[in-house]
Amino acid sequence: MGMKLINLLIADDHALIREGLRKILSIEPQIQVVGEVENGQKAVEFCKQKEVDIVLMDINMPLMNGIEACRAIKEEHSQIGIIALTIHDQDEYLFELIKHGISGYVLKDVHPDQLIQTILGVARGESFIPPALTARVLAEFSRLTSSEQYDKKHQALTEREIEVLKHVAKGQSNKAIAKSLFISEKTVKNHLTNIFQKIGVVDRTQAALYAIKEKFVDL
Q1: How remote is the C-alpha of 105 from its chain's centroid?
Q2: What is the mean pLDDT of residues 23-45?
Q3: Alpha-carbon gap, residue 188 to 213, rounded angstroms
Q4: pLDDT tens-digit profile of 85-125?
Q5: Domains of the chain with CATH codes
């Protein structure tokens, strides 16, 4: 099976950072940088015109910031993975980003290898939120989520779905979950589709937070 290239867009208002990211990512044969833009508005426009799999999104940009751009892109192209790039742990942004379906969150001082692994992981459908931030985000998530929305939802989950959800909350990939439960990756994907629908979430990160909130797993 041929290796599918990951079409990646870099959105950052600093030319130097864009150049640095392009150089780092050119090392990985599976990643193809298809464009660079300097603000959120241009990122949204680019995604309308070209085929993009993943956007590396700076948070603080002129005209339209990364959060607004994330929301706009996800509304039209839910399949595009978005990885936020930020200078420091901006918790208040992270919650907003999770709400809008972000797939990953990395600091700008991330090791190049880790950045590449995050991109490859998001392309496989995984989520990357630093564990150190999960507890803080969860507190915010619990505070803002209406209890009615979640009330008794997990009663509708089967035992197997709860098992899958526990593994998701521990940050395991579909491949690792399949191996642990002795089922195929396709079955894991089917379970995840059902779980997302039943508990009313759109991605793995929200599902993981739900699992922690419902005490299926302990932090």
Answers
A1: 7
A2: 95
A3: 22
A4: 887 666 667 777 777 778 888 888 888 998 999 999 899 88
A5: 6-129 (3.40.50.2300), 145-213 (1.10.10.10)
